[in-house]
Amino acid sequence: MSGSVLGDLFKISTWGESHGKGLGVVIDGCPAGLELNEEDIQSDLDRRKPGQSPFTTPRKEGDKVEILSGVFKAKTTGTPISLIIYNKNQRSKDYTKLKDVYRPGHSDYSYDLKYGFRDYRGSGRASGRETAARVAAGAVARKVLAELGVKIRAYTASIGPVKIDPENTKIETRLDNFLYMPDQKAAKKAEKYLTELMEDNNSSGGTIECRVENIPEGLGEPVFDKSDALLARAIMSIGAVKGVEIGSGFKAAEMTGHQHNDFYQYDEDQEISKLTNNAGGTLGGITDGSEIVLRAAVKATPSIEKTQSTVNKAGENIELNIHGRHDPVIVPRAVVVVEAMTALTLVDLLLKQMTTRLEYIKKVF
Amino acid sequence: MSGSVLGDLFKISTWGESHGKGLGVVIDGCPAGLELNEEDIQSDLDRRKPGQSPFTTPRKEGDKVEILSGVFKAKTTGTPISLIIYNKNQRSKDYTKLKDVYRPGHSDYSYDLKYGFRDYRGSGRASGRETAARVAAGAVARKVLAELGVKIRAYTASIGPVKIDPENTKIETRLDNFLYMPDQKAAKKAEKYLTELMEDNNSSGGTIECRVENIPEGLGEPVFDKSDALLARAIMSIGAVKGVEIGSGFKAAEMTGHQHNDFYQYDEDQEISKLTNNAGGTLGGITDGSEIVLRAAVKATPSIEKTQSTVNKAGENIELNIHGRHDPVIVPRAVVVVEAMTALTLVDLLLKQMTTRLEYIKKVF
Amino acid sequence: MSGSVLGDLFKISTWGESHGKGLGVVIDGCPAGLELNEEDIQSDLDRRKPGQSPFTTPRKEGDKVEILSGVFKAKTTGTPISLIIYNKNQRSKDYTKLKDVYRPGHSDYSYDLKYGFRDYRGSGRASGRETAARVAAGAVARKVLAELGVKIRAYTASIGPVKIDPENTKIETRLDNFLYMPDQKAAKKAEKYLTELMEDNNSSGGTIECRVENIPEGLGEPVFDKSDALLARAIMSIGAVKGVEIGSGFKAAEMTGHQHNDFYQYDEDQEISKLTNNAGGTLGGITDGSEIVLRAAVKATPSIEKTQSTVNKAGENIELNIHGRHDPVIVPRAVVVVEAMTALTLVDLLLKQMTTRLEYIKKVF
Amino acid sequence: MSGSVLGDLFKISTWGESHGKGLGVVIDGCPAGLELNEEDIQSDLDRRKPGQSPFTTPRKEGDKVEILSGVFKAKTTGTPISLIIYNKNQRSKDYTKLKDVYRPGHSDYSYDLKYGFRDYRGSGRASGRETAARVAAGAVARKVLAELGVKIRAYTASIGPVKIDPENTKIETRLDNFLYMPDQKAAKKAEKYLTELMEDNNSSGGTIECRVENIPEGLGEPVFDKSDALLARAIMSIGAVKGVEIGSGFKAAEMTGHQHNDFYQYDEDQEISKLTNNAGGTLGGITDGSEIVLRAAVKATPSIEKTQSTVNKAGENIELNIHGRHDPVIVPRAVVVVEAMTALTLVDLLLKQMTTRLEYIKKVF
Asked: Which residue stretches belong to region Disordered (chains A, B, C, D) (predicted)?
């Protein structure tokens, strides 16, 4: 139980290091009868792939996914789906000089404390590259959800001090710039901000917002498996994320009950609707059919060329400049990872909801 | 799997409704040999108990815990520990008039969507009262951790717009006021703010901060079971929490890599230390021995007497004033719940860490 | 994770010692909408209860079950169901003289090896009394299955050398004698055999057979969660069981492929049927709708008054005669426990089957 | 949750079909610091491999295992170990003619009932070939156990009516004949028996016995996770196994308490020993340091050329002769699978035992 397994019913088991032979994931519990091919998965992986903009590492990673099992005649069979992405273009040599140095903001030191030693090549298992397996699994989860009309869309909501303006935001335009911001003006400003940071060999944090439309009602379980709790865990498990909020989030702390409560009313069709969505789509941890809205705070890329103070294993305080091919900002590439984690969480809750009512059982059997 | 089970090795299974016969928890996996008696648990429960200040509901709940199993001659035996708290002083009648109304900010509507019907007495399983079982289990977890010197302390960091000032904050004084704020000046202001809100039949949100000192190194597992991810899930599972952050949290989004990275240095004893703690005690999800710092945003009590618009099951839009005995702010009573959830998460990771190195196995066998 | 939790979706967490305050179980994941009251559970408990025949301990245990949560207006709500049975009529004093002695055939020694000490009162957690909680949970599982017409019936198939004869066996008559044998002639012989053994202060083993009719098709998961594998685990987890077999069982080892294979044919209604049922209702671990047939071998009660050689903690070899109130045979009281474990295993697989096809999901949502 | 995940702490997730691209397993939770290379695993796989005797299918399967992750500089890192075995020499065409036929003794029919359709090439996921992934994972588990001196040895105990004779049995000689019997005389007889069966186009069942020496004390958890219960599940999950017994097994049913109880005595070194081992190494489900002894009944290979009656999907009763390359007996190739399942079960319990005592925690931290 080294922490690489997620989900109870749609259970994924990921593996792989950034400079090993490859990485992959086994999905145990995908329902039978889903149409699935490699292109379905590849399109999500391509959004995570580096080398596509001035604001990601120029490192080229092919990231071609291969389905090894669990699909027969283009449909899932209900048995484990094994996905593999072979590593290409690794330069392990770059890292041997870092093997005795603890890079600030990386997990070099904490891994050594945990295991006594570590695979130091490109952060090994702690590399952001590990998220490729999440995205691959997430693409399958998303396909299951799409069968019910669920739509999951994340985007960059801020880069450093530059935030999207709700007035200028059109979610459909989020892929129209390198930073995946749905506000083109903000994107321009953010690009300028990043360019300056890069000249200073520095990097930037940012935030990601994710919206889920058309989610079935009733997802999430009372107490510990609330939909927002499991989403928070899933999103916070992405390496660089330092905070997660749902709906009103941290603003809720400054609001009164009367301000925060979403009032109900019957709409014209005599359907129940809410006047606001401070809850962010979940009440008591259970979805009510309104849009799920969540946000994640992402820290800046820790690998920077700018001089930092640190230590080596020889007992010395040293100055460190990390050369190499690093993203000046993680946020845009993490957007699809947030979508994947959201999809993986929701599909598991969807399957659980199948088992919560006797009347559902009688419908099926 | 209705979501009331938490933990892999220190596994708790909670049960109970606010207006049923009682509530409780079964702990499966507490190590044998721990000294434990009911007073150890009661003292934490007493901090959650209402009726102790002008800022909590005057409702009296005895909340006396009883140990039913798993302890022999004042020591845990390694077998399940069953804890029970019988309900007293319930007034179910208060709720029958609410059974056909969807209270804003409550889970009445989402429970009906999930299950088709609900136990409407005092929110049933969705009641904040459910957290008593968490606090009881958390007290046991905390005792295990205390054997290794771990200290978990949470406190109110803000009430509505009133925040504690780091300059005036002394963590030792956090229990010296009704609001559990470690800044006595801020506490005064917050009490005034609350008093005014209460006159308006309104309620307030706030934030809770939690600090863990002397945590063993190496806790947390790569990828999905990162210590911060599991903490986020645990904290977000508390009913009223809308956001969670670790270390720098949402501020990280505005910082550069050079600002955010915690630089290492050797201290006088040639021990590795960090100049800052933006990471909040965990890197790559694994504890490095520095203090864990996390924060939660808590929404305002949804039950307010101030008039709200909502709907009933008869298909009518109605005006609602919720009378009864409700907390004007949840935050102070939730402080010990945050501590409990933190303890439960960390003790599970502690037990997991026991199994991660071959050399540990050889030490024991 | 001390081993007292069973099931993934219909998850039970049991607790309690034979001479503690009581024992119980929390069921997390029972579907909402099931009619349930205490009588439903009590009737199964009464079959396990001692003191009802010359062949069980004359010890009286009231074994009254109480539902503490999860049921509202006589229906399950989908939230945890907590069941409690308070202990009555314990005589802990009987056991203090045994606290430094390792009783042969009991787990006194292995518990000390595991935990370093043990609750020695009446075997503590290792007591057969622990199965009362299983029976209580099993009664709920059985009620869910009964909604689909599933019928689970176990009975005594042999006591020592006395076996039921298929020619004389009528399953409906299984409760017509103290030994729960469906062959009344065999029952007579077995009673005689037991009476003689009791005079010699000795005890007997036996076998239990369990049949499940009308089980839905498709239950069981490939590879590790085969229905027969999970049934074997569930049945073998009953303290005194030393062997489990399905269908042809150990006889299969002596059969040829042509003898063992169950041939298919279309019956008059053009439904597929099998000419034999050597498989015992499960092929590849998946139910095919035919009757599930399994058998368990149960060892003799280890507590006997007849002189045994053993050791004490003082380092001495001693002679031991265990006085007290013990069953001369465990088998009849274990019959309902086998039914309970079967029901718990099957209901979990039933809930899992709900999630295995995309078309099922579309039926529900 | 399609049933291909096993273990709580040493968690394996297997995948693959007999005629897909390959099969494999991800191990999540192998302790860090174990020396591991591909040869360690290959030697176990080679024992399962067909084509090595007149009594296995002449089908050649290379079964070369490759380690894809989790090992760095020849040591396990504590992160997931991914193992892959690419399929070679598949002849899917052989199976297209069987796609509309339900083969007796196979899971064709039950898979169709479960999923609505199936991968019919060589039984797909239900193929015995699936066990290659178990053997690979088992080899790693076995290596962990070997670090503590644990020795797991299984062998063929009977083929059809031919049983090994304890008088002639030397466990060290078990690999000296094609059938893996530790009694060379019996092996000769069994070979003769099999040769005759093969001429009749038939197949045989048999039994496997497994012995575990030097097992640490205290493994196994009370109630549901008893060592014997988990072993029974693990062994019964092997496709062709119809029964499992521990120690005295089914003989226990005919024994008296005085016969069955293993009496304790102090040996010359004042160590506690047992005069017999009817318990089979586990009391109350917890190992006591004596040898674990278990037996499995294995049914005959269902694929036989001898004429059988069955049905096709077109609604017809047909005669079936299964041509192709099939083992006349599964038992010898299953011997290493039984060892693997035993190792996987015990290593998981070993890791759990690490967490059961407070004093162990204090030894490590």
From this structure: 40-60
